[in-house]
Structures are given as structure tokens and as C-alpha cells.
Amino acid sequence: MRIGLIIFSLVIVSIVKGQNFVKYDLSKMGSSMPMKNGAIVFDNKLYFDATDSIHGRELWVQDALNTYPNMLLDINKAPLKGSDPKEFVIFNNKLYFTITDSFYKTQLWFTDGTDTGTHQFQALQMMGGSVPLRLEVLLGKLFFVAKDDSTQCYNIWCTDGTLSGTSRISAFKNIPIHSKVTPYAFSEFKGKVFFIQTDSFSGTEMYVTDGTMGGTKLFKDFCPFLYCSGLLYDYFIVFKDRLFFVATDSLSIRRLWVSDGTVPGTSPYFKRDLNILTGNGMDSLHVFGDYLYFVFKDSARVQFGFINGTDTILRTLKYDVGHGSGPIDFQAVNEVNFGKRMIMAGRYISGSSGTHYYIFTYDTVSKNLWLAQPVKCEYYLFPTKKFVYIIGDEGIGNGYELWETSGRELETLKRKPSYAPNTDPLIKTIKIIEFNDEIYYCANYDSSGYELWKLTYKPVFPIGIGNKSNSKKLLIAPNPSRNEICITNPSERKIELKIIDNKGTLLFSGMIQGNEVRRIDTSEYSKGIYYLVSEEFDTSKFILEY
Question: Which residue has the higher pLDDT, 115 or 369?
Fold first, then answer.
């Protein structure tokens, strides 16, 4: 741990505060590019990969006391090489991950959170396996894919964390030379694990294992011709005690399938073609509430549909996009559940106005799909306790930036420090993680390169009445109120407003247009005193009574 303490003493002065942002300059020379491989919260600490100017990419840790992050251990001691840790997963009260050693070999390691408790998992190497990847906890064990040194083929392994409890549970040999590395897409269902595997005879199909060599086998060949692949889509979804997935049959028709875990109980969900299952057909399965949602293509356009899992009625979402005319093709890239809303990144193609990239919101009450913000997001959405965070590009030359949304247009804001001269500060594939009620991510806002940034959504503005003596107040009516308030912006310009309670907790953040009257639902707020805060106006107080 001495190395981490030395680095701390050298770079603690590099913390830069702007509004409610903090930067950690881990590298001091160039970019540390933190969280390139991911991040995970383990034992109330944040673990992530990062590079410094001495050791290369290693495993770093940040504790809940908000002290400066430090490197846990220099695993690959070759100068500037680093161990490149990735594939983080928690199992048996330890953090497992993969590293690259000084001989450029990928190994499985684990840690209890201390440098002395960080070791290589020797069982895999002792049993003739190497290059572990796709670590997942399934059936109460740690599953992973690793190369069999004798056949050079990737197979499934599992372990209970001991040498005697570690074994290879598949014996795949006929792997096409240029195929995607398989197995993959593991899903636990009714005491078994279903996955996708490719071989030179059956193509890409659905397999199953009970965690033993004898219990690992082909589950169903959806396209029973030589070299014909039936299962091409990378996920299974458990919904209402059944397994849903998309597969292509021998007629090259892409269908939504459902299974009870047995071969006789596996069949297409829709009993007829419905004119939606050819071409680019079904995709993007997502469970939200009592329904399974998906994108499908009919003879005219791409739509967003849903089923209840019991009948075979295909339901479709209503659009409220407000652009162009004619058929609208809708395509979701990613979806997350956020309270009573499903927030999606995607695009639609209008017959008259072309392709539009947006953050979409789906409301469970109205069953309507509407636009939240014209932002292009190609990869991930990150839900937290209070907001969904997005790495998005609004298409005006600023590149990929950090966005914060609750799902509504006026509650979707761009977030960046007060001093951020660089354009395109974020990398679209980098992930964001919530830890200790704060948001951690990688960004390049200034000349120091890509470093670790922290954003807190705890309010940092002063609470008080009349803190701007020469400005007006926003108008609130009625006051006192019960289920909702109406806020009037008396100025000509668009402003940001926030609602906080007596404890300083941020309850609402959004934009209001000039001269707009905005209704805000307060039915879920408790009885008491609240404050309406804006940089342009005096803080206003309102009271909720019940």
C-alpha cells in the first residue's frame, strides 16, 4: 500500500473543483484513462482500472470517505506495462478479475480488498486452462470461459473458489477458426444455465448445462441443416417464469421464441407469421413492469411492441414525436427502467424529415412514447438513484458530453464543470458508475487528458430567502399547495430551476422557458417547507399541506 500513499501525497493538490465537480489527476503525465475496462463497488469501495506514469494500467480503489484514490497493487511489475485488470465480478466475498502478466498471458486473480489479500487463482492454470473471460456468478458458482491448453478451444469452467471445486464442464472441439469466441450469452433459468455456442456442424445454436460435464449439451437445433445457424442473438430474457429469446429457423424467419426449460415446451411465441418476423424482425427484448417490450419490423416500418407473456396479442406503442409525416421507423439502442418510466436511446426515421437521434421516454400510465432530448447515444444509459446519465452527442459540434435526465425534456440537462474548454470531452464507450451518492466517470475537459471525474448531485448552492437582493423571484401558485404547483418564469430567457427540501436534498431539477408557466407534480412530496432555487432569481419558499 506504500505506493498508493506516495502517489496520494504527490497529486492531492491536483483536485480541481468547479461547481459540484471534482477531478482526480491520477497520471500527472498524459491521460490515466480510468474505468476503460469498467468499475465495480465492492465492500463499500470503488474499484476500477487506471494508468499512471510509472506502473501502467493497474487496479485502483476509492473508499467511501472520499480520500484520494490509490493503486491497490502493482501486479505486473514490468515498468509501464501494467496488468490491465478487467472482467470484475464479486463472488464469495472476494472481487475476481482477469489480468495480463509480464509474459503477456491472461490470468484469473482475486482480492479481499487488501494488497496482501490479492492473489492469482492458481486452480485454473494447474488444470490446464488459460485466457479466462466472461466471468459470471451462476448456480452459486463462478462460471467463466477459458481456453483448454490441450485443444486450444474455448470451453466453460466453473469453480466454488477451491482447487477441488474447479472443473471444466464442456468439451467443445469443432470450433470454426474465424468464428466469434464462444460460448457466450449465459442465462440462469430453473436450475440450469442456457447459453449460445458455435461449432462447425450445427452452426450457432442454443445449449444448456447443469454445471457438470455430463449435463452440458445441445438444447435445440433451430436450423437442423449442416452449417446452418439458428440462434444468432446475444441474450435470453426471463419473463413470467419462462425464457424468451430470438432465433432464426430453417426458413430464415426471425421469430420470438419462448421456453419452459424443456425441449417440448420450446416454441415460437406467435403461432402465425403476423407479417413481422422476416428481414430485420425481432430485436431489443426488454422487461418493464408486466410486459416484455421489443423492436419489430412489419412490411412498412420498424415499431416498438410489447406482450404480456400470457396471450399472443401484439400491442404497439403510440408515438408522440412531432416531426414530419408518413411512416416512422423507430429503433431502440438501449433501454433502462427508471421509476414508472422506461428511458431509451434510439432513433426514428420520418418519411419527410430523415433520421433523428433522441433520448425517448415511455410512460407506463399513458402507454405513450415521447421525445426527451435530441441527443445521439450509441451505447449505454446509466440509471442512478435520482437520474439517468447519458454519454450523448446533440449534433452541434460539441461531441460526446455528459447528460442528466429524469425522462422529460425540461428535466434533461447537460452537465459539465464551469471550466471545460475542450469539445468532445467524453468517450462514447466509457461507462459511468454511482458510488456513495456520487457519479464517477472518465472525461477530458482540459489540457490534462482523460482523468477521473466525480459529480455529486447533492446541492452545493446556498439555501436561503432573498439571497439576490436586486433580482425578482419566480412566481409560485398556489402557495401553500397540495398536489401540484405552477411556476412562472417572468424573464425572457430559459433558466434552470431546482426544488430542495429543508435538509438540502435535491428533489427536482429542470429547465423552464422564458415567460413559461410550468406545472410540477408534488403529490409524492411530504408535508413541509420547500425551496425553489435558480441562479437568476432569489430563492423562493413554498409550503405543501395535506
Answer: 115
